[in-house]
Write a structure and sequence with these properties.
- This protein is an alpha/beta fold.
- It contains eleven helices and 19 strands.
- 50% of the residues are buried.
C-alpha cells in the first residue's frame, strides 16, 4: 500500500464502492475532431474590436439566438444556434500538435509515463475517450460500440498520432477503425475532391491529389485490407477449434466480441451498402456535400441511427486545420463551406429522426490559434496564426446540452480564458456523464487492477 500513487488509490476506492447510477442524457456521442487547430478568433469567438495584427478579416454575424454571434462564413450553423452551445474557454498547456492531439483525444492534459511525442502509439498511453466509452457503455447491438472514421490520423512523416487507441486498456479495446479515406500525399489537405488545397501554398505537390473516398474498409486494426478479409475470416474459423482448447481469459472474450463485430459489419450486405455513402441519393448528397467531410458526417449519422455508442469523426487528414498561412482564404473557401454544410445536415437529420436529444455532439481541435497574426513568407502568400493551447472554442449540441448557450469567455484578444476555464478532463467528464457512466466507474486491466475514468467534472453550465 505504501507504494501506491494517489491515482491508484482513487481507482481502488472507486472499485470498492458500488457504481452510483448516473442519469444518462444521451445514448450516443459523436466527437468531431478538427485536426490542426481551429482558430477561435475566426470562427466561434470573433474579436472585431481587437487591434490590427490580431483582428481577423472576417466579421461576426448574429445567430438565431439573441446575443450570440459567429463567423459570417458559418451561416448554416448560425441558423441552428438554438440547438448549439459554445464553450469559449477550454485550455491546456501545450502548443505541440502531437501532444495536443493526445490531450484532446484522451481527455487527459498530462503526459503518461513513457510518452515520447514521436508519433508512436504505445501500450502505456492513456486510453482514448473513444476506447473508454466503448468499454464503459453497454453495447446496444452486435455492432462495435466505438468507431473512428474515415481514417487514422497519420502525420506527414508517416507516424501515427497517439491518443486514439486503447493504450493502457489494451489493444483489444482499441476503437473500430473505418478506413474509407485512403492515406495519400499528406501535403494535400481539405475536403477532397471539391475543397482540396496544398499544405504549403508556395510549394504545392507536383502531383494532383489522387485520394478517392470509397466504400469503407472495415478493419480489426490498422493494416487489415479488404483484400485480406476472406483469408482472415477463414483463419478465424481454423483457429476457433484450437482456441476452444485454451483456457478462456478476459482478453479472449474481448477478442471474440471485437471479431464478431467485424464479421457482423462485413458479412451483412445491407450493412455494407449503408456505409457506401458516396452512392447516396442526390438529395442527401447535396445536403451533406459530395466531399470527404460530407460523406464522413453522413456515415456518422447512419452509425448513430444503427445504435453505435461512440463515433469519432476526423474531419480532414492530420493537421488539415493548421492555418499558419493564407488562413482567411483557406477558411473562407476551403474549410468552412464543407464543414458548415456537413455539420448542419448531420444535425438536421438527427433532429428530424428524433435522435438529437439522445446524441451528444462535440466539435473540437487539439488547440486554438495565436491571437497575433504572422506570415511564413517562404511557404505562404498571406498571414495566418500559429499553435495556441491556452484557449480554444468547442461546440456542443444535443444529448442534454442546453442550446442557445455560451459558456466561458476569452480575453479581448482571444488569448486566454477570461471566465470559466475548462480542461480536456472536464470535456471528457461531460461526455462520460451524458452517457450515464457513473462517477465511481472504473475499468480493469489484464491483472484486474481498477483504473478510474473521471479526472475532471462535467461542465454543468452546458447542461
Amino acid at each position: 500500500m505504501l507504494g501506491l500513487g494517489m491515482n491508484q488509490l482513487r481507482s481502488l476506492q472507486a472499485a470498492d464502492n458500488p457504481d452510483q447510477p448516473t442519469p444518462a442524457t444521451a445514448k450516443s456521442c459523436v466527437y468531431v475532431f478538427l485536426s490542426g487547430g481551429l482558430a477561435q478568433q475566426d470562427s466561434l469567438d470573433l474579436k472585431p474590436l481587437a487591434p490590427d495584427g490580431i483582428r481577423g478579416e472576417f466579421s461576426p454575424i448574429d445567430t438565431r439566438t439573441p446575443g450570440i454571434q459567429v463567423c459570417e462564413h458559418l451561416p448554416l450553423l448560425a441558423e441552428r444556434s438554438n440547438d448549439l452551445a459554445i464553450l469559449r474557454s477550454l485550455t491546456h498547456p501545450t502548443n505541440d500538435h502531437t501532444l495536443g492531439h493526445y490531450f484532446m483525444l484522451t481527455g487527459r492534459s498530462t503526459k503518461s509515463i513513457g510518452f515520447m511525442g514521436d508519433r508512436k502509439p504505445r501500450p502505456s498511453d492513456w486510453p482514448s475517450i473513444a476506447s473508454t466509452v466503448g468499454d464503459a457503455v453497454k453495447p446496444r447491438n452486435n455492432l462495435p460500440p466505438s468507431i473512428v472514421l474515415p481514417e487514422r490520423l497519420v502525420h506527414w512523416s508517416g507516424g501515427v498520432i497517439p491518443g486514439a487507441f486503447g493504450g493502457l486498456m489494451g489493444q483489444q479495446r482499441d476503437p473500430f477503425f473505418i478506413e474509407a479515406s485512403p492515406y495519400g500525399d499528406p501535403m494535400w489537405r481539405g475536403a477532397y475532391p471539391e475543397y482540396t488545397f496544398p499544405n504549403q501554398s508556395k510549394k504545392p505537390p507536383q502531383q494532383p491529389d489522387a485520394r478517392k473516398y470509397q466504400a469503407p474498409q472495415l478493419t480489426l486494426n490498422p493494416g487489415l485490407t479488404r483484400g485480406r478479409l476472406d483469408a482472415r475470416m477463414s483463419l478465424l474459423q481454423d483457429l476457433d477449434s484450437q482456441r476452444r482448447a485454451l483456457e478462456e481469459s478476459a482478453a479472449v472474450r474481448k477478442y471474440d466480441q471485437h471479431s464478431e463485430s467485424v464479421i457482423s459489419l462485413l458479412s451483412d450486405a445491407k450493412v455494407r451498402n449503408a456505409f457506401d455513402v458516396t452512392n447516396a441519393d442526390d438529395d442527401i448528397a447535396r445536403r451533406y456535400g459530395r466531399n470527404s467531410f460530407g460523406w464522413s458526417m453522413l456515415m456518422a449519422f447512419r452509425l448513430v441511427a444503427a445504435g453505435v455508442n461512440m463515433v469519432q469523426v476526423n474531419l480532414g487528414n492530420n493537421e488539415t486545420w493548421d492555418t499558419h498561412g493564407d488562413a482567411f482564404y483557406r477558411l473562407k473557401e476551403r474549410l468552412f463551406p464543407p464543414t458548415d454544410r456537413a455539420l448542419t445536415a448531420f444535425l438536421d437529420d438527427l433532429k428530424a429522426t428524433g435522435l438529437l436529444d439522445s446524441t451528444l455532439v462535440v466539435v473540437a481541435s487539439e488547440f486554438g490559434r495565436t491571437p497575433k497574426l504572422s506570415t511564413l513568407s517562404d511557404s505562404f502568400h498571406a498571414a495566418g496564426r500559429d499553435h495556441w493551447g491556452a484557449v480554444q472554442s468547442v461546440l456542443f449540441a444535443g444529448g442534454g446540452i442546453r442550446g442557445g448557450n455560451v459558456v466561458g469567455s476569452s480575453d479581448k484578444i482571444g488569448g486566454y480564458p477570461a471566465s470559466c476555464p475548462q480542461s480536456p478532463e472536464n470535456m471528457a467528464a461531460t461526455i462520460y456523464s451524458a452517457l450515464g457512466i457513473p462517477r465511481t466507474a472504473h475499468w480493469l486491466d489484464e491483472l484486474d487492477r481498477p483504473h478510474q475514468i473521471y479526472f475532471g467534472d462535467p461542465i454543468s453550465e452546458l447542461m
